[in-house]
Design a protein that fits this description.
The complex is a heterodimer. Chain A is mostly beta strands. Chain A contains 1 helix and 28 strands. In chain A, the strands form 7 sheets. Chain A has a 4-stranded antiparallel β-sheet, with no helix packed on it. Chain A has a 4-stranded antiparallel β-sheet with strand order 2-3-4-5, with no helix packed on it. In chain B, helix 2 packs across helix 5 (143-152). In chain B, strands 1-2-3 form a 3-stranded mixed β-sheet. Chain B is globular. Chain B is built from 5 helices and 3 strands; from the N terminus they run H-E-E-H-E-H-H-H. Chain B is an alpha+beta fold. The chains are: A mainly beta, B alpha+beta. The A-B interface holds A 22, 47, 75-76, 78, 94, 119-120, 122, 138, 165, 167, 183, 214-215, 233, 268, 286-287, 317-319, 340 and B 107-108, 110, 128, 132-135, 137-138, 141.
């Protein structure tokens, strides 16, 4: 199916209002957004220090705010992430802590607060099995936490190496390899070779590897885990690839290499990029727009190239901070968060 | 606290006469006037320097020409010149200008702040920090810094 040939548009399904300050991130519950007969659930977090849980009613098809998590954090909640089981929600805050909330359906309980970072926590990510989580901070470090029984969390590693504020952490979708990106313009790859919990920085993707020339704000992997997209204040998106089979065979580390740079499409900082299951890359930027990219069908000697599928101007009334495809199959739903205080649900559909 | 001022003897420039805005009786009262360079300069000229009882205009840290505005595209860039090359107050000044503009301009505006090229020893690092909105947001959650900024901003009439 060649997406470029179809007449596609991004249709605004609903605007979710409620936050009283900018919304920094959105996260789809991985389980409820996919299972048949279960309503999709979305979490959003904000400068108003709260997290809102939104659910789509199966009857009316409209989204409402089911609950507001407003007790734990005393400052901006910068990002949130659901555990793979959908049972837990981790929230990263400028107050230096990471909250762990248990999902009881209509209620959430803060069961633990992870402390340790010296200042603002910027991002949190669960590994594929849900056995570990990672957090990162302006204190330049990346922490790995182990999930233990009885709502206990143990600090398993404190990883230093970045020379500046770490903006985001993201575990590989299938392997226990951790990626971080930073204000220091680099992306670092952390791996425990002997699987003994001793993580080392095995690769740094910087300017000398065709990396970014300014702050890298976000990382996203394709479903197979052999490609990733990064976005930056340098106004480009970069596509990277690796020999995943070699990595999975466990023999040695397969380095990531630069495949393609998408430049000339953005003129303000790109804050977020997300790779869908059907290979559409979405970006959210400081010019209030959302853009979609797909790989070009035309083979090139130099490697893959990407085309702009569509651009949604004025997607929001201010900067778009986060864009996330719903994990559900076939519905092509997208959630976005903005400095305008709104969360929006979109659908990528064929023009009528 | 700093025991000595970074710049003990700043040059204070003679004040530029303020042009009175002419009453545009010819314009339709429903059409908003495009925001121009002078209007934006008016918002920032009276910000006090963090160290001296003088304004940014007095010390020529900002001038009318340091403001570049494109109202149609909702864009403004302010280039400020710290009084001394190693001025560590430059981050505070930059933050004050940003806060004042955030409070004074319509929310549609994209605001870029930078130091005048060649005017500061760590120019690139400074510009990067002043334009990282996550860093700015976190800084503005720091009550001490907010207090410092509020002291520099002209009081609301």
């Amino acid at each position: 199916m060649d997406l470029m040939e179809k007449n596609l548009e991004l249709v605004e399904i609903q605007k979710l209002e409620g936050h009283t300050d900018r919304v920094w991130s959105v996260a789809w519950n991985p389980v409820s957004s996919q299972a048949d007969g279960v309503s999709p659930i979305l979490a959003s977090c904000s400068g108003d220090s709260t997290v809102r849980i939104w659910e789509q009613s199966s009857l009316s098809r409209s989204w409402t705010c089911k609950t507001v998590l407003d007790e734990t954090h005393t400052r901006t909640v910068r990002s949130c992430a659901w555990s793979p089981s959908g049972q837990l929600l981790a929230t990263a805050s400028f107050d230096g802590t990471t909250g762990i909330w248990k999902n009881y359906g209509s209620e959430f309980d803060c069961i633990s607060t992870l402390e340790g970072h010296e200042n603002e926590v910027k991002s949190v990510s669960w590994n594929a099995s849900g056995s570990h989580l990672a957090t990162c901070s302006r204190d330049k470090s990346v922490w790995i936490w182990e999930v233990l029984e009885g709502n206990e969390y143990d600090c398993a590693a404190v990883l230093t190496g970045h020379t500046q504020d770490v903006k985001m952490v993201q575990w590989h979708p299938t392997m226990d390899v951790l990626f971080s990106c930073s204000y220091d313009n680099t992306i670092k790859v952390w791996w425990s070779e002997d699987d003994d919990g001793e993580y080392q920085c095995v690769q740094t993707l910087g300017e000398s590897n065709n990396g970014h020339s300014s702050t890298v704000w976000s990382i996203s992997f394709n479903a197979a885990g052999d490609k990733m997209v990064t976005c930056s204040d340098d106004l480009t998106l970069k596509i990277w690839g690796t020999d995943i089979a070699r990595m999975q065979s466990g023999e040695d580390y397969a380095p990531w290499i630069h495949l393609c740079t998408l430049s000339g499409y953005h003129d303000r900082t790109i804050y977020s990029a997300h790779w869908s299951r059907d290979d559409i890359i979405v970006s959210g930027a400081g010019d209030n727009a959302i853009r979609l990219f797909v790989e070009s069908k035309h083979d090139s000697v130099d490697g893959p190239s990407y085309n702009l599928l569509l651009k949604k101007n004025k997607a929001h009334e201010n900067d778009v901070n986060s864009v996330q495809w719903s994990p559900g199959e076939g519905n092509r739903l997208l959630a976005s968060a903005s400095d305008d205080g709104m969360v929006k649900i979109w659908q990528l559909a064929t023009k009528q | 606290m700093v025991t000595g001022l970074i710049n003990e003897n700043p040059i204070i420039y003679p004040k530029k006469e303020r042009r009175l805005r002419t009453d545009s009786s010819t314009t339709d009262e429903f059409t908003p006037e495009p925001i121009d360079q002078l209007e934006i300069f008016d918002h920032i000229r009276d910000i006090k320097d963090p160290e001296h009882p003088n304004t940014l205009e007095d010390l020529r840290v900002v001038t009318e020409d340091s403001v570049e505005v494109d109202d149609e595209n909702s864009y403004v860039r302010v280039t400020f010149t710290p009084t001394v090359e190693h001025c560590s107050m430059a981050t505070v000044i930059g933050l004050c200008v940003r806060v004042k503009l955030l409070r004074s301009l319509p929310s549609r505006y994209k605001i870029d702040i930078r130091v005048a090229p060649g005017s500061h020893a760590t120019e690139d690092a400074l510009n990067k920090q002043l334009n990282d909105k996550e860093r700015v947001a976190a800084a503005l959650e720091n009550p001490n810094l907010v207090e410092m900024v509020d002291e520099c901003l002209p009081s609301e009439e």
